[in-house]
Amino acid sequence: MNNLNHLAIIMDGNGRWAQIRNKPRKIGHQEGAKVVRDITIWCAKNSIKYLTLFAFSTENWKRPKAEVDFLMKLLLKYLKKEKNTYLQNNIRFKAIGNIEVFNNPLKDMICELEESTKMHTSLTQTLALNYGSRDEITRTFKKLLKNPPQELENLESLIAKNLDTCDFPDVDLLIRTGGEMRISNFLLWQISYAELYFTPTYWPEFSTTELSDIIKSYKKKERRFGGL
Ligand code: FPP
After folding, report:
1. Residue from 64, 90, 181, 189 nearest 138 by CA
2. Residue 153 lies in a domain
3. pTM for this prediction
């Protein structure tokens, strides 16, 4: 049976979930935020050590300003409201991506929550915010080139240690909801050996029951990591 240490999820389909119900897209995002909470608590209670969620990509800025503003507000509201969930469930909060561009209240809340949960030991829940894998790798190279390593023998591990995910294990299982079969610039380095699972379920309808079924099938898969 495969161990599941690091689960990553591309949460897609909020807008379509709302549109087919004749509701504004923002209602889909609101419902999606509730699912983030349920899935996070379930993961903490089911011994998953890392959960990384794609919450806002470097490409999402292309959306209409009203939707971007709404997502920023929702995120801040979520982090404030759920602070107790992180504290009561021993969950460590982390953000990856370039958060420098966010407004001060959001940046402060991210830093405060990272700080107040840094000793927590059950689940590490990571939100990828203004995150894109190419941007992460590019930032890593800029960092390394400013202070180039003396020898290149261990360059691969040096790169890994300088990514935003420097202290996380590789992703074991990547799930994408919403029916599209693509990776959309998410954790390209970290999913090298991950099992991939695509479900048509829109994120607001994704449930702990479906997650548990996906994990059961993941556990039975044979993972060879390039060997036989
Ligand atoms: C994709 O749905 C989802 C996003 C761009 C953002 C993810 C945000 C949430 C799940 C809610 C807020 C998150 C937190 C952590 C509070 P989409 O809008 O691309 O849907 P579509 O493909 O149907 O248009």
Report:
1. 189
2. no
3. 0.97
Q: Ligand 1 centroid to 203 CA: how many Å?
A: 8
What's the domain range around 68? 6-132+170-220
Regarding the beta carbon of 120 and ligand 1, being less than 6 Å apart is answered: no
Q: Compute the average pLDDT of residues 180-191.
A: 98
Ligand 1 centroid from CA 42, angstroms: 20
Determine, yes or no, domain membership for 142: no
Ligand 1 and 204: CB distance under 6 A: no
Q: In what order do the strands lie in the sheet with 195-198?
A: 92-96, 124-131, 50-57, 6-10, 173-176, 195-198
pLDDT per position as a tens digit, 85-121:
999 999 999 999 999 999 999 999 999 999 999 999 9
- Catalytic residue of the set 2, 5, 46, 60: 60
Give residue 69 CA to ligand 1 midpoint distance, Å. 13
Question: Is 154 designated active site?
Answer: no
How many domains are there within the chain? 1
Instruction: Report yes or no on 216 lying in a domain.
Output: yes
Known catalytic membership, residue 60: yes
The answer to whether 13 and 201 are in contact (CB under 8 A) is: yes
CA angle 221, 189, 86 (to 5 degrees): 80
Could you tell me the maximum CA-CA distance found in the chain, to the nearest angstrom?
59
The CATH number linked to 40 is: 3.40.1180.10
Q: Whose CA is nearest to atom 12 of ligand 1?
A: 33
**Ligand 1 midpoint to CA 173 (Å):** 20
Does residue 42 form part of some domain? yes
